[in-house]
Amino acid sequence: MTKLTPQLLDECAEWVWEQMQEDGVYLAGEVVDLILAVERELGIQAGAAAENAPRIERELIDRGVSGNPNAITADVIRVVLEWEDEFLGLAGIARADC
What we know:
The chain is mainly alpha-helical.
């Protein structure tokens, strides 16, 4: 089983951003990077997207991070995390190894 290296995490974030653009969800690439970084800082990356998204949203709010013109909501975060799951699956990486 492959481990998620910093280089693969960067590739994951870029891929997630591209998938979101194709779906018509426009989000700065730096926000995708931040969401994935906060998930790891909180140590919750092995959890389900639906459970992690509200926790990450609260953490971003606590840090004073906000989107402009659109808020970075738990729903947007969940979509990022679901695309992350897709990338990990394609890369053969288990969430527990992240």
